[in-house]
Amino acid sequence: MTEPAPALKTDETVPAPPPADEPGDGPHDVVLRLTDVVKTFPGVRALDGVQLEVRAGEVHCLLGQNGAGKSTLIKTLAGVHHADGGEITWLGQPFAPANPQAAMRAGIATIYQELDLVDDLNVAENAFLGHEDARFGFSRRRAAAQKTREILSRLGHPEIPPRTHVRDLPAAGKQIVSMARALSHDAKLIVMDEPSAVLAHDEVGNLFRIIQGLTAQGIAVIYISHRLEEIREIGDRVTVLKDGRTTAANLPARTTPTRDLVSRMTGRSIEYVFPPRRPATEEKPLLVVEGLSRKGEFADANLTVAPGEIVGIAGLVGSGRSELLETIFGARRADAGTVTLNGKRVTGVGRAVRQGMGMAPEERKSQALLLDEPIYKNMTLASFSGFAKAGFTDASGERKAAEKTADLLELRPRDVTRPVRTLSGGNQQKVVVGRWLLDDTKLLLLDEPTRGVDVGARAELYQVIHDLAARGVGVLLVSSEVPEVLGLADRVLVMREGRIIHEAPAEQIDEAAVLDLVMAGSLTTESILEGEPA
Amino acid sequence: MTTQTAPPEAPTKPERRKLDENTLRNLGLVGVLVLLIVVGIITKPDLYSDPTWVKNNFLTILQQASAIGVVTVGMTFVIIGGGIDLSVGAIVAIAGVWSTTLATQSYGAGGMIFTAIIVGTVVGLVNGVLIAYGKLVSFIATLAMMVAARGLAAQISGKQTQISTNSTINDIASTRPLGIPLLVWILAVVVLLGWVLLNRTTFGRRTVAVGGNPEAARLAGINVKRHTMLLFALSGLCCGIAAIMLTSQATSAQAAMANLYELDAIAAAIIGGTLLSGGRGTIVGALFGVLVFSTITNLFAINNLPTEVQNMVKGGIIVAAVLIQQFRFQSLTKLLKR
């Protein structure tokens, strides 16, 4: 094992500034002002003096690592939490919403990362949930549908029928419904918590058009994202939080150098820092996938992964990449084709795991973790039987092994008896990866390994993935972030509409080429209606 | 795996939060038990002044708790594993009736015990197969089994009470090794085994994983379906044991025996801290839950109060226990979420 500390170096990736057609720093009214806001929980000072100033019609970006206090801050604005100290002024008045309804009535709407829609209600019912238009207790469905239609048109999506069940909409459509709900309350400030996390590349473009439409109507937006390039594209000003404190306020979103933003978030300057690539080893393949197909998801997938090789799959959400990964792992049944690991056929998750395959799925919380269980039990979830003697678990042996892995991954906090729920997103992801480190895994499948992971923890995860490959583990990786695929992988596969359309060594392809392949014939707004299979 | 050695042990707080929660709850239940006994002393001071009566009454409470306690251990496993078993009472009945038919009784005590345990386990297994592989919701599958198994029990017994003529079986309830009824010993052994199974074995670990996050368990290579099936079989096995215990106590079995055991067992598990949504629960808590109920029953019996009032009090206790639990759970999650 090599030194696990990530190589820190500065890497400036400032995209070309977009055309200056934004309203500029005109005489916009300040609608929201936070001064020295403090919020403590038993044992934690989650907010420790936050300053924030939001003007009407601007997109104000909040930047900060996981655990910096962004979530607490927006929940305070949303009336979920109540500030212990400091001052919040909303439209010139002191503001202390007693509950979420009060915040809504005051005109502050929040769109959480995990969308809070009711799947079995239709679009209109969701948009007006909690303040249904009713007469004598009977809901006025036609009126609601009509109003919803108007709102959806305002959002640029008149094609979404108000009577569609939300369950049948793809992620992007659901997000639009969330925004429709915000507008149904006549919101003057919309807080969006990582809205792009669930969206594919072109859908983010739609989202940005909607946001621009909103700000043109004078609505202020607080925008939270881990993706700096988005902040550059959509943001007007940036406020950076670190450890519950504002470390920089009202920086210009487009011109502030990346290095400055990152260093204010982390105290270091890193963004995409990839360890140096090793020469690819020519060996007989570890994983061979031949003609793998699943109806409506992907077709005729052929690929190989050699020991110690990192293969990256680039593609949009809905291109079938996650489904392909899950089928290789045996979590979905293939309609046709074979998966072979070390010459042996793989069918079903149980056999895949026993043969040395491991997977870190896309949805950490719902697919990988037992949130209330301690770290070490989560790490040994795939291997506790191996520790056990005659069916009796060996908790102290598991703890020791988990501690070793925790050190290897620089897990923070290192106390492996803590419930996983208390960890940040990046550290939770380390627990999931650590699970397979413990299990002597030969092939690791990673689905969006850095989603919702802050910049600093990302670099560490990249290092971990490289270290694994250096030990001879084959890695098959899926990511929405093209630079990540290019930076990590030795070989890149591009997927579009369920097919692998291109394969190239990573050094022979660049971001523009991948995006070009991925986007050609890309999904248009109609696809929101059709709904991609989940 | 790595050549890196662990740095010096940092001061750790091993699972303190969770430990505290469980210990607190168990202490609370002990408090309730003490309270119930104090009420008994206040209402019946004359009885409580007799040490022999106190000792015998104490053993009576334990004995009353024994059969339902065994069922509750199985139920706790099922609930932690993310399911629910509404058919436990019916399984006890079918196992009891089947093991006391004239034909079975002709095989002697061993045959009767074997029959009860096999019948219970097989019926539980049927539940498990329907739920795990037939993809029925456990509520529905076991609801259907509850009706069907009682029907079958009535069919087999011809709606008659079947007297057990086997003295070995009948003596189980009256034997007192070391002065403690054998039924209480059986309960103690089952609780101990249940505790070990849940907390010290891979089976227990799988149970928590399957109930806490079935998808994560599946993707970690755990055979979720097979485990779910086994959990229901385990519950059926416990019912089979309980059937023998009840048969011994009554020296007979009938289709209506163990009536509403499913409710008592679920209630005991819940007030003992088992999360109805699965993934969390304790055997010790469930045992305390059973003891609280049997102590209430006893309190009402010694005061000659009607069972209607007793049922109302029981209902109130269930609601209060869950309310308290929810309150604590909420404040806990608030604390953790930030």
Automatic annotation (TrEMBL), chain A:
Instruction: Give an example GO molecular function.
Output: ATP binding
Determine the domain of life of the protein's source.
Answer: Bacteria
InterPro entries assigned to the protein according to its UniProt record, in alphabetical order:
AAA+_ATPase, ABC_carbohydrate_import_ATPase, ABC_transporter-like_ATP-bd, ABC_transporter-like_CS, P-loop_NTPase
Q: Name one Pfam family in it.
A: ABC_tran
- Name the SUPFAM superfamilies for this protein: P-loop containing nucleoside triphosphate hydrolases
Say if the entry is tagged with keyword RNA-binding: no
The alphabetized UniProt keywords are: ATP-binding, Nucleotide-binding, Repeat, Transport
Asked if the record carries the keyword Signal, the reply is no
Segments for region (Disordered): 1-28
Q: What is this protein called?
A: Sugar ABC transporter ATP-binding protein
Which organism was this protein described from? Paractinoplanes bogorensis
From TrEMBL, chain B:
Instruction: Spell out the subcellular localization from the entry.
Output: Cell membrane
Q: Which UniProt keywords apply?
A: Cell membrane, Membrane, Transmembrane, Transmembrane helix
- Primary residence: membrane
Membrane-spanning ranges: 23-42, 62-81, 88-107, 113-132, 139-158, 178-198, 228-246, 283-305
The record's InterPro entries line, in alphabetical order, gives: ABC_transp_permease (IPR001851)
Coiled-coil intervals? none
The record ties this protein, via CDD domains, to: TM_PBP1_transp_AraH_like
Q: How does it sit in the membrane?
A: Multi-pass membrane protein
Protein name, UniProt field: ABC transporter permease
